Structure formats: C-alpha cells, structure tokens
Amino acid sequence: MHIPTVGETIQIHSYKHNGRIHRIWSETTVLKGTKTLLIGANNRTTVTESDGRTWVTREPAICYFHSRYWFNIIGMLRNDGIYYYCNLSSPYVIDGLALKYIDYDLDIKVFPDLSYIILDEDEYDEHRKAMGYPDVINQILRLHMDKLINMIRQKKGPFEPGFIETWYEKYLMLKRDLRK
C-alpha cells in the first residue's frame, strides 16, 4: 500500500457495501501518513455525490483515518467550536492517490461540549437488509461504535483537547510553506 507523504494531495472515496461509489472529496492534504494512520486536512473542497451532484465544504476540517478502526473522524472547525462527524466504516486503504473506505451508514455527530448523538440507525437497518451485510460486519461495527464512544467520553485521539487545533495549525503552516 502506498503511504502518502506530508503535503501530498489525495482524494477520499467513500463506497457502499455493494461496491458503488457513495461520495468523493476532491482534495485533501496529507498532514501525517503511516502504515496505520492518515491525518489530512481540507477546506472548501468539492464533494461529488453518487448521483453526480456537487457541493463545497463550508469550513476547514481535519480528517482522521486509522487502518485498525472501523470508523473515521472528521473534526470541523466552526466559529462556535469543533464539531465532529464520525462515520462507522471499514478501515481505509490507499489505492493510487485516493484513500478508500466503505461507509456503513451509522454516524455519530459530536458537539463542541463532546455530547453526541447517533445518526442514521434506520438507514443502517435498511441497507443492512438490502445489501446483505453479514452478521460479522454488524458485530464489528457495534464493537467499534463502543470504542468510538469510549474515545469521545475519555477525550482520546482526535477528541483530546487541542488535537484538531494543532493539526489545523500544521495545515496552515504547510499551505503557507507550499506557496513560497
């Protein structure tokens, strides 16, 4: 697997369990890349939906992907604090200049005070039946949802105070250096 280097630009491709593309983020700057972890950043990047519609992200975001976790975390820097959107998903792979994962519908939205809500449980149940998610996938996702909730409650990883801000500063410095 190719390990992207700091400053490299990659796309992020989200798929559904049936292999169909779900969403593509056109440009994310790599801030850290190892065999097991990728941290990236984007701001006002174009997102293309499966039906071809496009939209542009509204705020800077730090993206956290780990090859051993069945979730990824997006920290969005807004005027009133950091909001997180956590996708229950397969671990990521890098294929060429794209990071790829399977989106399994379940999401957790985390607010600046670290309170959270679980989203899209109905969509998960619908897709689980329609696409035939195996029972083992359901078990893995439930286990990793518990891990994710524990990370939130314990303020670990991207939820650690200062984590998102530190990586955002590195992103700004990298962008500044690349312009020189």
Automatic annotation (TrEMBL):
The keyword Metal-binding applies. GO terms for molecular function: hydrolase activity; metal ion binding. InterPro entries: DUF402 (IPR007295), FomD-like_sf (IPR035930), Ntdp-like (IPR050212), SA1684 (IPR016882). Keywords: Hydrolase, Magnesium, Metal-binding. Residues 18-156 form the DUF402 domain. The keyword ATP-binding does not apply. This is DUF402 domain-containing protein.
